[in-house]
Design a protein that fits this description.
By secondary structure, this protein is of the alpha+beta class. The chain has helices at residues 11-15, 24-44, 94-102, and strands at 2-9, 47-52, 60-65, 68-73, 82-90, 111-116.
């Protein structure tokens, strides 16, 4: 079964992506954890795709109303945590997907959402 593991990071963790006065140790620790998680998924042979995304300031939300495109600056949902990235995995069952989600670095201080992918008709 294919699932998307969606990582929502706390603002503090998201800021640790770059060295923004927190010191190089925090920046290095942040990326080391994500690299290890991606490598574990790859080594297990379950990952089909993965990618981080840019900060919420770069997001645009598009709606089409009465044939007119409306563009809102910012993400669709205004939440404290930020969507940081995703992983597409092919695992035997939902429990396996939940186990992988629990080992995602974002689970410690943010949240990790797990959703099954729609199967092609």
């Amino acid at each position: 079964m294919k699932y998307m593991i969606i990582a929502y990071e706390s603002p503090e963790d998201f800021d640790a992506r770059g060295n923004r006065g927190d010191g190089a140790d925090r920046h290095g620790h942040y990326w080391a954890r994500w690299k290890a998680y991606g490598e574990a998924l790859s080594k297990a042979g379950v990952v089909l795709g993965m990618n981080g995304i840019q900060p919420r300031q770069t997001a645009r939300t598009v709606r089409l109303r009465a044939g007119t495109r409306q563009v809102q600056e910012g993400p669709y949902a205004d939440t404290r945590d930020q969507l940081g990235g995703y992983f597409i995995v092919d695992v035997p069952d939902e429990e396996s997907a939940l186990q992988w989600a629990a080992s995602c670095p974002a689970a410690e201080s943010g949240a990790v959402e797990v959703r099954p992918l729609l199967e092609k008709a």
